[in-house]
Structure formats: structure tokens, C-alpha cells
Write a structure and sequence with these properties.
about 0% strand, 17427_t:CDS:1
């Protein structure tokens, strides 16, 4: 039942144990992890990043950009801001590999 929060620049990070939710509300961005159903999303500039566990899909819909990893078929493409955002995610939550 752990909860960690940082209210610095409007940011909130929380961990709800097994239901794990992590979110940052900084610049309209939202990052969340739902445990086994792992979902990461950023709603900043219309961008969406999501990981669906075993089916691992990461996508950004910002300017028609797409970032995707299909597990063993690993395809990754990064277009600008998404690269920076994903670096932020990895810095904050090192257990996530992307």
C-alpha cells in the first residue's frame, strides 16, 4: 500500500502496491502503470505511449509519430519529443525498459 508523491512543479508520483500507478501531471502529462496490464500514457500534446505487457506496444500519436516495440519482433522508432519523454520515464522508473 505504498504511496510516494512529489508536488514540486505540479508533479505527482504514486505507487499503489500491486495495482501500481505512477503519474506525472506536470505539463499535462500522465504516466501510469497498472501492474500486469502495464499501461504508460502521456496526454501532453496529444501523445500516447502505452505498454501492454507481453504484447509490448508503445505508441505516440502526437504528430503522426509512432513508437512501437513488439516484444521479440522488436521494432522501435522515435520522433523527437517522444525520445525525450521516454528518457524521463526511464530516469524516474528505472525498472521500465524501453
Amino acid at each position: 500500500g505504498e504511496t510516494l508523491s512529489s508536488m514540486g512543479k505540479g508533479e505527482t508520483l504514486s505507487s499503489m502496491g500491486k495495482g501500481e500507478t505512477l503519474s506525472s501531471m506536470g505539463k499535462g502529462e500522465t504516466l501510469s502503470s497498472m501492474g500486469k496490464g502495464e499501461t504508460l500514457s502521456s496526454m501532453g500534446k496529444g501523445e500516447t505511449l502505452s505498454s501492454m505487457g507481453k504484447g509490448e506496444t508503445l505508441s505516440s500519436m502526437g504528430k503522426g509519430e509512432t513508437l512501437s516495440s513488439m516484444g521479440k519482433g522488436e521494432t522501435l522508432s522515435s520522433m523527437g519529443r517522444v525520445k525525450k519523454l521516454f528518457r524521463k520515464i526511464k530516469e524516474r522508473f528505472p525498472r521500465w525498459e524501453g
